[in-house]
Amino acid sequence: MTHREPAHVLLSARGLTKSYGGPPVVDRVDFDLGERAFTTLLGPSGCGKTTILRLIGGFERPSAGRILLDGRPIDADPPERRPVNTVFQSYALFPHMNVFDNVAFSLTLRSGTGDIAAKVARALDAVHMGEFTNRFPNELSGGQQQRVAVARAMVAEPRLLLLDEPLSALDRKMRAHLQVELKDLQRRLGIAFVYVTHDQEEAFALSDIIMVMNAGRIVQAGAPQEIYRRPASTFVADFIGGASLVSGHILSATADRAIIRTALGTFEAPARPAFTQGEPAVLVLRPESLAPGRVGEAVPATVRHVTYAGQDFTVEAEAHGVVLRFAAQEAPEPGATVPLAVLGHKAFVTAA
Amino acid sequence: MSALLTRRQTLASIVGGVAAGALSLDRAKAAVSELVWATWDSNAHPEYVDPFKKETGTAIKLSFLSSEDAQFAALKTGAAKDWDVVNPGLNGTWRYIDAKVLQPLDLTKIPNRQYMYAPFKDTDKVVGKDGKTYAIPYLWGLNPIVYRKDKYSEEPTYATLFDSKYKGQLAMRDYALESIAVAGLFIGVPRDHVFTMSDAELAEAKKALIAQKPLLRTYWQTIGDLTNLFATNEVTCAFSWRVPFDALRDKLPMGMAKPKAGIFGWSDCFAIPATLSDDKVAAAHAFGNYLLGADYASAIAEIGNYATSSNIIRDKLTHEKQEAIFVDDLSVMNSFMWPVAPPNYSAWLKIWNEVKAA
Amino acid sequence: MPDSRQILALPVVLLLLVGAILPLTILVVISFWSVDFDAFELVPGFGLASWREILGNPTYPYLIGKAVLTGGVTTSLTALAGYPLALSLLRLPKRWKSVALVVLLTPLYTGEIVRIYAWRLVLGTDGLVNSLLMGLHLVDAPLKFLLFSPFTTALALFYDELPFMTLALWIALERLDMRLVEAARDLGARPLPAFIRVTLPLTSTGLCAGALAVFALSAGDMQTPNFLGGPSGATALASIDNFFGTAFDWPTASALALTLLLTLIVAAALLAAGILRLGGRPARVAR
């Protein structure tokens, strides 16, 4: 793992593994979560990200490995004894309690929690739900329920808040709105969030750290730009989206750059890991790594599909048997041949 | 259940065969080819009635009763048109006579009456207000105290059932009539007066029954229930029917006691419905005479362990068999009492409810 | 306005009305009649003798109270045992659930009398339990209270009715979103508070259904107390049976039957209302 070491580690996983008899759902995972970091577990469905959340929350016991909080193992602790709270997917609000009672739930379980009503009011105000204390969950919209779920988890004053795809059931506009609210809330509270999503845009918008997962393993962890610009594998590059992958082999390489020969030509690009000569590798081409219309070192590409994307058009074209995606200001005719320049310094070479 | 069905099916086929035989061989001789006898299934195995067909050519077709009340209702409503001979209980015969569903019997056609034990022959329960006899008791038995001989040094009496020495091993029947009557006998009410006890005597009996409660292991519900209780050593002495004695005597040292204070007897009668057609009346009388005769008495003593009201074969039986059917010591008949519903039966029931709930 | 589906229910409603109200009306009428015990005939009229007997004689209020108590105790015991049982069934893998269902319902197929005699074999003086206790030298003499005592009645009724309660709770729990329980734990509730504040209220309709079935079946059971309760086995039902069947005292039987029925209905209604209150919120229409 090559991600940044946070200033103070709140929670760590070491060799964390979970299996239900078959192949492991979570497979020897290690990570450290910083005290105030917004960390996102990003991956396709079934990759084990929700299971990691449930392991942290205490709803599942690890098959192997450990989870440490402040360096102390907490695997034997039931959920109620962990300073961790969860915002569940579809929220899991108590349908038989009104908003006030839902939010007050954790406070009524302990003694000496002070003025419950004031704390509930403060938490609901923080999520702009102060008006709805007497409503029942089925009288609220999805976005409102989500806010109540956050308030309910927040009021328990956790050191770590877990959010399991909290926005996936909402429409696009509401989702964008709540993303801003969540990020804002996290900064104000100053506590660590662990966020699970399969939506890379959401991950990029919110996270300090993204951990990309595939088949039970964390395949790359790092800051969003790092993940985008320097995907550690073709899986990451592909999952992050929009990239065209062109295989080839290394002609020469330094520690962080490489010259790669592909069907489209030979290019020099930033690279990781350090390659050796002759090694097979993959050139990752983002839309911004391809420039249409440039003459010179351009490759002729045949237009296959054109999609209107608002600001511009997304074009899918084929050159030497490789499918390339790029953005264009004007829509080319399908079937037409367009020249396409490959900008090596905006591309990336990753392991095959 | 299945055994019962099988037996009934077998019975039906045997009776059918008998009837067919009668038709082919004795048609000329027999004035009546068949009589339908409504009775209890334990009173009428095929072996008990086969000889009658051989003697007279009249086959006996059996129609089994489900309850005394059902029999009375069937006669009263006319639903019993095919019954030629019926089977009222001795204690309830008055009801049939009052309802005029029976016809008077021609006693001269029943010569075997001469062999009847006096208490049965002389009973006025079967005589109508017109002085005529409408029924004849033919089969009887008694409800003894059944006990474990190895647990009691001497034969139990009703007092044994109220003796704290035997706490936790006694049982009474969950039945107001018999249990209150037993308590009546225990507190000294004479047996001919037990079913007409005064209110004061009833109160006394109730007190005895409530005092008895802690001594009881349980109240028994059915005779199978009680047999099970004896078999599993839960109970060693109970006011009973003879069934547990017969069922368990091979496995356990079972005994039957016939308390002198009074013995609850039962008796079934032979009677002819008022509506019976004239051509069958003679054959019906002949069948009544047969029930008091030697063939029926021998068969039912041998197989069913029941005694008829006729002494015709008594002296030919082994002492053991006499003992089994209670005719070894005829003084038992001096202690007979016939349970009848008391005139204030509802009051008895209320007392029983109070005892049970005490 | 009734829709077509409600109209389909009409024949059943009529049947229930005729089947329930008609006999009850007859009972009410007969309870004021008297009996001519000489003629064995019911005499129509308006008398209060049978009501005076039933309400004035402490025996019958006692027996009716006993029925309510029996129902209440059995319901409580089956609920206490039914929840853990149903929760463990819930966690079974799917293919084992059908096996568990069959096993759970097996006792119901055996018939009451068979079960009663089986209890005798297990709890009797020479029964399984006493033989075991004696064999292990834990007791010197057979424990008599095991059979023919209120304990036996309670145990047998508990066993007999447990499947009904467990089944009702199981169905309710299958419909419960288990994430709600996880949420409660997550928010700091230990297992028992999480159960009381989330699982119990959200399965209260199932509990109510189970409780009503168990209450009716146990308060209305005559054979189990009769055959296993020993001298303590008296029931209001056995008294009714005596009055109707043996004594031909239909008016008293009717008055007792009506009083018992009314009391049990009121008790069951209170029980149901109490349980449904656990569910918390009154039914409100979602917007």
TrEMBL record, chain B:
The keyword Glycoprotein does not apply. One of its GO terms (cellular component) is periplasmic space. Keywords: Periplasm, Signal, Transport. InterPro entries: SBP, Sperm_putr-bd, TAT_signal. Its main location: periplasm. GO terms for molecular function: polyamine binding. The keyword Aminoacyl-tRNA synthetase does not apply. Pfam families: SBP_bac_8. It is found in: Periplasm. GO terms for biological process: polyamine transport. This is Extracellular solute-binding protein. It comes from Lichenifustis flavocetrariae.
From TrEMBL, chain C:
CDD domains: TM_PBP2. GO terms for biological process: transmembrane transport. One of its GO terms (cellular component) is plasma membrane. It holds the Pfam family BPD_transp_1. It is a multi-pass membrane protein. Coiled coil: none annotated. Keywords: Cell membrane, Membrane, Transmembrane, Transmembrane helix, Transport. InterPro entries: MetI-like, MetI-like_sf. This is ABC transporter permease. It comes from Lichenifustis flavocetrariae.
